[in-house]
Write a structure and sequence with these properties.
CATH topology: Glycerol uptake facilitator protein
Order of helices and strands: HHEEHHHHHHHHHHHHH
Radius of gyration: 22 Å
CATH class: Mainly Alpha
Helix content: 55-70%
Number of helices: 15
CATH superfamily: Glycerol uptake facilitator protein
Shape: globular
Distance between the termini: 44 Å
Number of strands: 2
Length: 392
Amino acid sequence: MGEAKPKVIPYAGVDETVASAAKAALYKLLQTPGRLFWAGVLAGVLIGMGYWFAYMTAASFWPYRVFLEGTHVTKEHVGTLIGYEVLSKYHIDLVTIAKMILGAVFPLGLISILIGGAELWTSCPQVPIYPLLTGKAKDTAIIYNWIASYGGNFVGGFFLAFMATYGTSMLLGHPFFDMSFMFAYKKVHLDAWTAFWRGIGCNFLVNLAVWLWLRSKKGDFAGQAVLIWFPIFAFVAIGFEHSIANMFAIAAGLFGAAINWKTYVITYWQFFINNLLPVTYGNLVGCIAFITLYYWYLAAVGGKVEKAGAVDLVVATIRVGLVLAIIHLVVMVVVPAFIAAGVEAALGLHEGVKLANPYIALVPGVAACIYYLVLPFIAYATLKPWTAVKEV
């Protein structure tokens, strides 16, 4: 008798989750551009609404006030302003409470998206990738999904930022402006290395929430909401970076400064290149490395998911984490950055310039939105995603 071969079985039933997700996720790849883009717009609005809700409930605990002195942004601790130097000297403030409130209410967005139905790009490096890894879809279908969802998310977040500032004026008064502007200003002045790693931490937790939702009992909406809530609370309270949430947060800070100070303090080049570029890639890596490929590799032992080894894992990492990621970053971040920067140059907009009309700050972003609106239709016609799906 020959020696018995080692027996490997799927780990904790993850093969069933990956297999069911791979089949169920095909609807994300087989949508017309109008439908997929609109689903992305709603997701951008919902994530932005979570941020807006967080600002309105946490800002009273934010201990700083911001000022523009010439072209320089400064901040003062409230304790200093009211004459209590000890408060600022010993950092006696309520930042931690403010961050806890931010984290507690922000999950409104993802809970609404996953249970209600909308297309959030930061979950797309997980859910639509399972059909790709299990042979049910090709790369072109993934590119199409990423283009439509990311573009829709930007338009949704941009619109909501307009609503929160130019529309309702709710983020223009103190302390709401102080908090929203400081968040935006800090985000566009992060170094790329820090922004990248904060993006990794964020989307690891976001897609942990998505994975828990995939594993949850269908129809148990209350239980699903609780499962989603905890990881999202953690990422916000820690201070990680979420590219889609930043589309609202940075735009709101940019608009608020334009209205309150009549000054162009944050540029779209900073918006796209300083923040969205490294954060988006960090979000990709955080999801792909720690969630998508991890659970697929655990599942791929011959249960409901075809066997795959270490070599397959390396190939998949290069395929998704480098090739598809670079295509996405160039098309969805770098190109619109140049479009917006070109419009800024044409209008004479640069950091520190005074604005006769604060509405001029909208124009470069609107140009980027038009690009994002048109691109899914071009991608649908050229990539033909319906031909890249092997099983329905």
